[in-house]
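Give me structure tokens for this 276-residue protein.
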Amino acid sequence: MTTAYPPLSGETLVVPIVGDPIAQVKSPDGITRAFAARGRPAVVVPLQITGEHLDALIAGLLPSGSIAGVIATVPHKFGLTPHCATLTDRAAFLGSVNVARRNPDGTLHGDQVDGAAYVAAVIANGGDPRGARVLQIGAGGAGTAIALALLEAGAAYLALHDADPARRDALITRLRERFGNRVGAGSDDPTGFDLVAHATPMGMRPGDPLPVDVARLSPSTFVADVVTRPAVPPLIEAARALGCGTSTGSDMFAAVSELITDFLVADGLLAGGDPA
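Here you go.
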């Protein structure tokens, strides 16, 4: 049964989601219904805004007591960060925020849950990063969040591979400051790895090469992908044909919505309420 929307009134709180573009996002409906299911009188409203106008928008929103928080999608996860007076440890490490809630003084407290959602999707689909040897493809913004989350979840070793060796090496250096020799350089060869974590857009466009050499995949290797379109990316299709366990980008983004909701209702203006 689909959860109804909360009734609108002067007490309704608003959580804008900012992006450029914004037409593709589906979370406003899902998170608004999640608020209603938890007894929170709030709605998520999509706002199209370019990067050059983001600062003015956030500055204009925050004086309103009706704004309970802000959600950021591409490309504003880095742009929202300077507007947060306080950050979680992972958001501070990443320099990126995709959800922020109000502090008691009206300022924003930011978090970055993309990596945690990726790991949650892996676990929900039968994978387990704990003690695993992980090969990750991609060291960009999403890859940085995912690498941090995999290591925090207990991965024994994380090998990074990226088309840009300088970007790969820079991320390895940062992660080694916290995790030591549990991080190193990898290649597209998945031999000997328990988990393959794909964190690039490769596979969204017809004719894209596969990010790893699937001929070297073992059926016991779990394969996770960040790509949401197509719903079953080529890497996942190939992995399933070999009998590998898998999780998809769609699984991850379902988990993102759940974690964003959890963060927003845990404290601030949306704390409390009477869950249905």
